[in-house]
Amino acid sequence: MFHSLDDLLKILNPQVVGSLKRAIELGKWPNGVALTDQQRSLCGEAVAHWEQRHADPESRVGYVPPKATPCADKHEDERITWVDS
What we know:
Blueprint: H1 5-11, H2 14-26, H3 37-54
Helix pairs in contact: 2-3
Protein name: DUF1315 family protein
Region (Disordered): 57-85
InterPro entries: DUF1315
């Protein structure tokens, strides 16, 4: 039995984490039983914590690479003027 998230994270390995990711994606365990909302949430939390400790940033769930250029035009010190109507 696990007494903390740290206890669980100590026994996880890449294969188990892969199985958890697959269960989250499909919404069911390998035996076909559906995940509850709580199980999906806890599995996601465990995967995220495990990846934070063991995976390169580029291989983590949800990784978005930085852009070479910003999305918007750069407006240095643009002034806003209030107009009374």
